[in-house]
Specification:
Elements: H1 2-24, H2 34-46, E1 52-53, H3 54-61, H4 69-80, E2 86-89, E3 108-111, H5 115-118, E4 119-120, E5 128-130, E6 137-139, E7 143-144, H6 148-152, E8 154-157, E9 162-165, H7 170-182, E10 197-199, E11 209-213, E12 215-217, E13 223-228, H8 235-247, E14 255-258, E15 266-269, H9 276-286, E16 290-294, E17 298-301, E18 304-307, H10 310-351, H11 364-375, H12 388-395, H13 399-403, H14 407-428, H15 431-449, E19 459-461, H16 468-471, E20 476-480, E21 485-487, E22 494-499, E23 504-509, E24 513-518, E25 523-524, E26 529-534, H17 537-540, E27 545-550, E28 557-562, E29 573-574, E30 581-586, E31 592-597, E32 607-611, E33 625-626, E34 632-637
Parallel strand pairs: 10-19
Antiparallel strand pairs: 1-3, 2-3, 4-7, 5-6, 8-9, 10-11, 11-16, 12-13, 13-15, 14-15, 17-18, 20-21, 20-22, 21-25, 23-24, 23-26, 24-29, 27-28, 27-30, 28-33, 31-32, 31-34
Helix pairs in contact: 2-3, 3-4, 7-10, 7-15, 10-14, 10-15
Length: 646
């Protein structure tokens, strides 16, 4: 058994780690999940400038992603609809209407031109690892130059944790990164393609919640037009929620027409005698026209799940961008130095006629020695020491190229290389300036290719979520019959009060047991009920309960005056101590009651009256105050109280 338990523990930990790191949670470096990264790698591989069938791309991606074509296809469509990584052709679904995409064999895609700019694919800079079967290599993680984690957004459920990152506006994110690089303060908020309104007062920089609403056009008192959708909502789901609310009698509408295409347009017509002001709050309360979305920016950072804020992510990308630019400049400098070295070798080899010295040599070894010897007088002109690879390159220069060698062209090329090397040296001293210039250039490129991505679509405003209770009408009768049933579906009996479906009630039975529950349809509470009221603290806290109870062993009688300050839903409590017999419960501040004692020899006084107001109010857990040392037979209460329940 111990072996099996250890095996299960080990396998579960491995499974949980895999789901967290390799499936559900995006990596902070590039904002991509593994399947998305593998799709991008495949698109870079097959990129020839033309559109490719999505089914072809999915098939090619399967050699990197071992989880089947369905997950790849869904991820590719989702990635294409972000409109930043992939250019699409055909029906990729509609984020406004909620319609799905066409089959992969009918739609096409290719890499977005700008994806080549902000994702570093150079194997010398980006680390590549073997794929799952070891036949190919794939990027462990791309080095992204812009904060894709925020621009894309993400949602995923792993083992014991989840992430929910709302998408942000591209221009605002890049502007915030520029401000961060300059040391200025910045603040950013989510922006969804479907528009809508959001309240970010509890957003907590990405780890709180937002309240989002549809945008209404209420210029006509008899018609409501939904022009923008709430965040994370499409027209199909919104219409379904409106239909459900109408069928449940929560809202009064005449008809609903959906004209949504590439923007939202849903017309809600109202019946006679109903106007827009009467319906708007109900739409917010009972439909998806208003939603509360909880957010958590959980990402993989340094191979570990970490919760971050939007500000921290911007700061991370700002530091990372300068590091990427530095690596790219140093790589370019190394490439130029190699090129300069080769051009210098070629010039000396041809201009100083070193190739002539090898014409008489008989063996390969003598030829190589002759080349090394020929360069000895010119060591000072070389960029670095000459190597065997350099000699091999020189020996492979064809005679035709030697005879047509243009010394002026070589000098111009060398001058251009030296000029670029000086420019790189200056850039390396001002990496922050380079990063700011790069972000500015990316904004200009997006402005030319995808200007719609730079415009904010979601309006940030301030409003309070509509409480369903405040909108719900208390128009249902809570009834109690002689059989002991309580509820809104009880026929006959006595009407206690009007309630709404969202109310909770506190019920106290004749045994002294009380509980709080949702308004019941039909619930047996026993014959005889002391108290029934809507369970709101501001109501219940005003009620002073006076309980008269008897010890069944000694038959001594006690009184307890208390209030009920708190409770847990659907949990039973006793207002009298355990084992006591409740004789009476009253909610009046002042009343008189009489104790009738058992007849016994030498007992002359058989009854005694008390005033309840003469006894002090105590805590709910107190045991009560003993009224007398005689055995009590019954209690009679003067006046009337809520005897109607008995």
């Amino acid at each position: 058994m111990a072996f099996v338990k250890n095996l299960f523990d080990k396998n579960f930990i491995e499974y949980a780690s895999y789901v967290i790191r390799d499936r559900a949670i995006p990596d902070l470096e590039d904002g991509l999940k593994p399947v998305q990264r593998r799709i991008m790698h495949t698109l870079f591989e097959v990129d020839d400038g033309y559109f490719q069938k999505v089914s072809f791309v999915v098939g090619r991606t399967m050699k990197y992603h071992p989880h089947g074509d369905a997950s790849i296809y869904g991820a590719l469509v989702n990635l294409a609809n972000k409109e930043i990584f992939i250019e699409k052709q055909g029906n990729f679904g509609n984020k406004f209407t909620g319609d799905g995409p066409s089959a992969g064999r009918y739609i096409e895609c290719r890499i977005h031109p700008l994806a080549k700019d902000f994702l570093v694919t150079n194997p010398k800079i980006t680390h590549y690892v073997p794929n799952y079967d070891g036949r190919d290599t794939e990027p462990e993680v791309y080095r992204a130059k812009i904060p894709l984690t925020l621009i894309m957004g993400a949602e995923g459920i792993a083992v014991g944790m989840s992430t929910k990152i709302l998408p942000y506006n591209l221009k605002e994110v890049l502007d915030a990164e520029i401000k961060c690089l300059k040391g200025e303060k910045f603040k950013i908020y989510p922006d969804a393609a479907t528009g809508g309104l959001i309240d970010v007062s509890n957003y907590n920089d990405g780890n709180g919640k937002i309240v989002t609403r549809a945008k209404f056009d209420t210029s006509d008192d008899k018609k409501i037009v939904i022009t923008e959708l709430p965040v994370d909502t499409n027209a199909k789901d919104l219409l379904q929620s409106i239909d459900n609310a109408y069928r449940a009698g929560k809202i009064k509408i005449s008809s609903v027409d959906n004209f949504t295409t590439d923007h939202c347009c849903i017309e809600i017509k109202l019946p006679r005698g109903v106007y827009t002001k009467d319906v708007i709050d109900s739409l917010y309360a009972y439909t998806d026209c208003e939603k509360t979305i909880a957010c958590q920016m959980l990402v993989i950072k340094d191979n570990m799940p970490v919760a971050m804020t939007a500000t921290q992510i911007i700061e991370f990308y700002s530091q990372k961008l300068t590091g990427i630019i530095k690596d790219e400049l140093e790589f370019e400098r190394g490439t130029l130095m190699d090129k300069l070295h080769i051009r210098t070798l070629e010039r000396i080899f041809i201009e100083e006629r070193i190739y002539k010295a090898i014409e008489t040599k008989k063996t390969q070894e003598d030829v190589v020695k002759a080349v090394y010897k020929g360069f000895e007088p010119f060591k000072a002109e070389l960029v670095r020491e000459i190597s065997d690879e350099d000699v091999e390159h020189l020996l492979q220069i064809p005679i035709r190229r030697i005879s047509l060698y243009d010394i002026n062209k070589n000098r111009e090329e060398v001058a251009a290389i030296n000029a670029r090397l000086k420019e790189i040296a200056k850039l390396l001293k001002n990496l922050v300036g380079c990063a700011i210039d790069y972000l500015g250039s990316m904004l200009e490129k997006f402005k030319k290719l995808s200007p719609q991505m730079l415009h904010r679509k979601t309006t940030v405003t301030s409003f309070s979520a509509v409480d369903v209770k405040s909108v719900a009408k208390s128009d249902q009768s809570l009834r109690y019959d002689e059989k002991g049933y309580l509820g809104i579906n009880v026929s006959g009996g006595q009407e206690i009060k009007k309630v709404s479906p969202y109310d909770r009630i506190l019920v106290m039975r004749k045994t002294g047991m009380y509980s709080v529950c949702d308004v019941p349809q039909k619930m047996f509470v026993d014959r005889g009920m002391w108290f029934c009221e809507i369970a709101e603290k501001e109501i219940i806290n005003k009620v002073l309960f006076t309980v008269i109870f008897r010890d069944p062993k000694t038959k001594y009688c006690f009184i307890k005056r208390t209030r009920i300050p708190s409770w847990i839903l659907n949990r039973d409590y006793f207002i009298a101590p355990d084992g006591m017999e409740v004789l009476h419960v009253d909610t009046r501040e002042k009343f008189t009651f009489t104790l009738h004692y058992e007849k016994k020899p030498r007992v002359k006084v058989l009854e005694e009256s008390f005033k309840a107001q003469n006894f002090e109010e105590k805590g709910l857990k107190t045991l009560g105050i003993r009224l007398c040392t005689k055995e009590v037979e019954s209690v009679k209460v003067d006046g009337t109280q809520m005897e109607l329940f008995k």
